[in-house]
Every structure is written in C-alpha cells, then in structure tokens.
Amino acid sequence: MNGRISVVARALIVAGLAIAPFANTALAQGPTPEGTVITNVAEVNWTDANGNSYTPVSASVDVTVGFAAGIDVTAQAATVTPASPSGGNMIDFVIDNIGNGADSATVAENISVAGIISVTGYQIDGGPIQNTLADLNTALAGTSISIGAGNGITITVIYDVTIGQAGSSTVYTLTGTSRRDGSATDNDQTTIAPPENVAVTVTPDGGLNLQLLPSGATNYTQQYTVTNIGDGPEDFDLRALFVDASDIAIVSVDAVAGDSTQISLGAGANTTIDVVYQVLDRPAGTQDTVYLRARSVTGSPVAADSGFADLTVIRPAVTISKAAYEDDQSGPLAGNPAPGDFFQYRIEVANNGSANATSVVVTDDLPAELTYDSTSDDGNWGVITFADPTVTAPLSGPLTPGSSAVFWIRVQVN
User: Fold this and answer.
1) CA proximity to 360, closest of 349, 371, 352, 369
2) 170, 117 in Cβ contact below 8 A?
C-alpha cells in the first residue's frame, strides 16, 4: 500500500508582540531590528492509502536577530564662506544610525589646512556647548545620547576664522564611528572658504572747485590717492573720465599715455596717481569734472570707487577806454585845443573776466598832428616808452579780475 505525504513550509516573522504586517514593513524600510525573534514553523500533512486524514503536526525554531552596526555622516553644507576674521561660525553634520539597533557614536575631525580656522566648541542637537573634542566624545558616550535605529543626531561645530585668511580655504572633515562596532564608520566634509574682502577708495571726493584757464600749451595735473582697503593684495584697473569730451582731453594716467592703466596694491597700501589732462578751448564759466575710477580686476564681488575734482573754465576779459582830458587832468577836455595847446589822453584798461590777464601791453600810435611830450600813470605800469609815433605801456604785473589801471599821455597840438 502506497502512502502519499505533502509537506508545506511557512516562515513567520515575529518581533516581540508585533504582528506580521508591521514586521514586513520594517523589512521594506531597513534592516530587521536587533532582538527581533524569527519563528520558523514547518507543518506536515498526510493521508493513508485508504484516504484517511490525520492531524497535521509541526515543528518550529526561534532565531533572535543580532546587531548590525551602520553609521552615515552627512555634512549639511558643501561649502561655507564666513568672513575673515569672524567668530562663532557654525557648521552642522548629521550622524544617522542606519544599523538595526540602538547605538552611539564617537567623533573625530580633520582640518586639511591648519591656521585658517580654530574650533572653539561643539553641540549635540543644540544642547550645551562642549569645549573640546574630548568633551564632545564624553558627552556622546553618555546613556542619554543613544541613537535609535533609523534616527540621527546633529553635531554642530563652532569655529572662528583667523584674520588675514581671505581667499584661502580649508576642508573640515567629521568622522563618526559606531561605539558598538568600531568597523562601522563614515565621514563627510565641508569646505570653509573665507571670501576675499575686496574694497578700494579713491580720493579726493570733490571739494576742490578748480578754476582753470583753457590749457593752450599747458597741461594740468590732478593727483588722486588710491587705497586698497581690502584684506588681500589686488590689481585695479584705473580710468580717467570726464563729462563732456568737448571740455577735457586726458593726456596720461600714472605716466601711461591715454586714459587708463592698471596697478597692484597690497592690503592696506595706497599710492598717488597723477592724471594729466588739458582743458579745451571753452567759454568762461564752462563746468566739468575730472574723475579717476579704480575697479578691482579679480575680486568677487567686484569693488570700485571714484575720486573726482570739479573745475570751472575761467578767462580774462580786458577792456580799454580812452578819453581826452584837460592838461591838468582835472576833467574831460572842454573845448577845441588850438595849435600849441597841451592836453592829455587818459587810457584805462580793466579786467572784467574771471582770470588774471598777464603780459598786458597798451600801444598807442600818435597822429602826425600831435607831438609827444610825456607820460604818467597810477603806479601799476612798468617803463612806458615812446618811439615816434608809438607809446608803449606795459603793466608791471597781472591785471586781476575786477581791477583796472590808468596811464596818461601828454601831447601838444602841432
């Protein structure tokens, strides 16, 4: 008599008092939790040759899941850019427990370039500041800092940036290691890159109010001071500017022909820049401004500043008047002089303009009907000469705006 036996095997996953659907969800999301009891049941069913049924029998085995460590460290910022110098800066790292049971961590750090930053403290989930790495690890070893499976903690690193480190960078690496299994470790890093503070000033910033004649053959020079007020060496483009091309022509900047050049300055250094220019042939009262602009070549963000000097075009405006006076200079000539009579010419020059008139010379050609006798003046003239028939009268100095000068020529009617 032949018998038939069928065996059905089933695996049930039981974790404490949890029901099977919860255990299946845990499997989908992560490793089976430590301490989970896996009960495996095998059941046998059979009949005999005559078709009689029998009560199934089973056998089971319980297996308890052990601990598997897992640590994942994630930097919350790839790069940070604190100022140099600055204090109380913070960077965060999250240490996640990706193992299957409660764990804790030890922390190590590495700073790739020394001297750029100094770590001043640490915090665990925003808690009390731990002054040193040793203090941090002592706190992490405490029973209150257990990290449940699937949970994490945040380590905040507090640091200062040293002065003079603008433009430099260092990499801060934080490593987390399982306290229960030292082979489970991970790290991540943040680059700390203090940006260079690029800044420049150019002076003067107005206030000069230059009064200038049209240049003619004369060049003018305006001096500017360019100062690098940033915290690192920098190259600067310089350019001289003005408002109206019909007013001003730039000759050179810092002895370089044209309106532009480039200079290099160390942090805090300054230099004097000569801007040479010409004032073109413009009417008196014309106003313009000569600028010198300095702009950073490589700095980010680009820094720039301008100094400027305002100017007004000035010109002399000389007038001359001539009148016949009585021989004693007492007043204008009253009648008609007869041959042999003496009278005098009063000649006055005046400057009604806005600039000194220089090298003022009056010439007077006497007609043939008159005979030259002598000259006199108000003390503003040099040596007045007569070379028949011309009287030449030079002023002894400049004729200033608003001033005048008078001289006399005594003549006799032929």
Assistant:
1) 349
2) yes
Tokens of 8: 């059905």
Structure tokens at 87: 């204090």
Beta strands in 193-333 (DSSP E): 200-203, 210-212, 220-228, 234-241, 248-253, 256-257, 260-265, 270-279, 287-296, 304-313, 318-325
pTM value is 0.60
Nearest alpha carbon to residue 272 among 332, 347, 202, 320: 202
Question: How high is the pLDDT of residue 144?
Answer: 78
Compute the distance between CA of residue 211 and CA of residue 294 in angstroms, rounded to an integer: 25
The residue to which tokens 């016949």 are assigned:
324
What residues are paired with 234 via a beta bridge? 265
Cβ contacts of residue 176 below 8 Å, gap of 6+?
71, 73, 93, 95, 105, 106, 107, 155, 185, 186, 187
DSSP-derived 3-state class of residue 48:
coil
pLDDT in tens, 107-154: 999 999 999 999 999 999 999 999 999 999 999 998 778 999 999 999
Mean pLDDT of 408-414: 97
3-state class (DSSP) for residue 373 = strand
Measured CA to CA, the distance from residue 159 to residue 165 in angstroms comes to 14
Radius of gyration of the chain, Cα coordinates, nearest whole angstrom: 50
Evaluate whether 162 touches 84 at the Cβ level (below 8 Å).
yes
Q: What are the structural domains, with CATH classification, of the chain?
A: 4-64 (no CATH), 71-192 (2.60.40.10), 200-313 (2.60.40.2310), 318-413 (2.60.40.290)
pLDDT (tens digit per residue) in 369-383? 999 999 999 999 999
- Kindly give, in sequence order, each residue whose CB lies less than 8 Å from that of residue 40, ignoring residues fewer than 6 positions away: 11, 12, 60, 61, 62, 63
Residue 38: count other Cβ atoms within 10 Å of its Cβ: 16
Question: Considering Cα of 19, then 23, then 24, then 26, what sign does the dihedral take?
Answer: positive
According to DSSP, the β-strands at 385-387 and 342-351 are unpaired
As a dihedral over the C-alpha atoms of residue 375, residue 377, residue 381, residue 382, rounded to 10 degrees, the angle is 40
DSSP strands (E only) in 112-167: 117-124, 152-161
CB within 8 A of 15, min separation 6: which ones?
22, 23, 26, 32, 33, 35, 36, 37
